[in-house]
Amino acid sequence: MLSKAVARRSEEHVQRAIVDYLTKAVSPDDVWMAETTLTDDQARAVDAARKEMVVRGRWQARRGDVQTWLGSQQFLIRLVAENPQQEFVVRAQVSLPPLVVVAARALQRGDVIRASDVRTERAPTAGAAEFSDVNQVIGMEVLRTISAGRAIDSGAVRQPVLVKRGEVVSVYVRAAGVKIRTLARADENGSRGDLINVQGLTDRRSYSAVVSGPAEVEVYARSTSASSPAPRGSAA
């Protein structure tokens, strides 16, 4: 019976050979990944061949034709150390690592990210990186230093602060198509979409509002409807 160690080692040899083939024949600039499973006989043959193998794709490889080689693919494996030479076909799942957004230059705390500050690249060990499109981070504020080439994660950036604590802000009250503007003082910092507490300048009444822009918040008043008539004899 074939041991799991030999099976896994043989599969890794074949996978590395497939990756090497795709790198040389299709695209040296991409980080290829390949997963395949061998039969016991194939694994024994690969192990006996001591890594000496030649890989060929199902069709002629063309430089730059990356998309053609993604997904389930067939490869011919020729074991050159065998006498006579032995060959067999394996199916491999070929993929590329996900795109992640990385810093194109060192970013400092407080920087607001511009298009020239970031780029995307393939990262096999992206880990917790959550951004795959530069448009997701452009305009965001940096919370801690991000070195050049490092993936940007959600804990390192935030929407810029548009309302600061103690600042007088415009409060727009919207209800039934009517928009009313008044003033209040912010009790806390807030970014776009944050729900913060503000305090009226005259009555000192505190209430919640949504940050909608620089020094600007919005309140959506509940619509009211006419109440049902009170029963006869009841208090008005």
List keywords for this structure.
236 residues; rod-shaped; disordered C terminus; five-stranded mixed beta barrel
The level of helicity is 10-25%
Beta fraction of the residues?
35-45%
Secondary structure: number of strands? 15
Instruction: Tell me the overall shape.
Output: rod-shaped
Helix count, DSSP H or I runs of 4 or more residues: 2
Quick overview of this protein structure:
By secondary structure, this protein is mainly β. It is 14% helix and 35% strand.
Which helices and strands, and how do they pair?
Elements: H1 4-25, E1 33-36, H2 40-49, E2 53-57, E3 71-79, E4 86-95, E5 99-103, E6 118-122, E7 141-142, E8 157-158, E9 161-163, E10 168-175, E11 178-186, E12 190-191, E13 195-200, E14 206-213, E15 216-220
Parallel strand pairs: 10-15
Antiparallel strand pairs: 1-4, 2-3, 3-4, 5-6, 7-8, 9-12, 10-11, 11-13, 13-14, 14-15
